[in-house]
Amino acid sequence: MKSENQKGNISHKVVEIRRVCKVGKGGKTLSFRALVVVGNQRGIVGIGIGKAGEVLNAIKKGQYKAIQNRIQIPITRTKTIPHRSEACFGAAHVMLRPAAPGSGVIAGGAGRAVLELAGIKNILAKQLRSKNKINNARATLLALNNLQFITTTAKLRGLTLERFTGRKLTQDIFDTQKSDSLAKQSLISKKN
Question: What is the reported pTM?
Fold first, then answer.
């Protein structure tokens, strides 16, 4: 089940609906538990769990909690993650690796829903140990939360990007920008 929300272009996906039961003095009380993932497909994603007597109320509660628990993740220009990441939640262990453009989302279960709603188009993911959808979704969110761009890491260490990588990146960028601007000027002068 997937739907669009008008404010902020947030879409949500119901990953799992389970019928759960609470045993009390008077007998069993049945209710429903829904695992919901929300995201804007541009780097913001969150998960939430809702419990209610009816399925629709459980989904609404889960969606509300997921909107409260959203995180911002870094995505590269090729719609993948900047580096490899691993995370554990409970018995679930998730491994994420960046992939080449055109690879697609190679993941299964709850992790796939989280990655798609985050806006990641090329990634390799593997769920190890547990098959529990809630723990796998939370482990995937933790792995995405651990990601950082190289520029952020360089700033935290107090280094320039050139010294951190050992390459002259800015010179190459300036050269390409100069050649692009010279090409545009020559096109403008030819038109005039």
Answer: 0.79
**Domain regions of the chain by residue span:** 11-146
DSSP letters for 7-74: GGG-EEEEEEEEEEEEEETTEEEEEEEEEEEEE-SSSEEEEEEEEESSHHHHHHHHHHHHHHT-EE--
Per residue in 52-73, pLDDT tens?
Answer: 999 999 999 999 999 999 999 9
Q: Give the full edge-to-edge strand order of the sheet including 44-52.
A: 2-4, 11-24, 27-39, 44-52, 71-72
Closest CA to 70 of 120, 32, 117: 117
Is the domain spanning 11-146 CATH 3.30.230.10? The answer is: yes
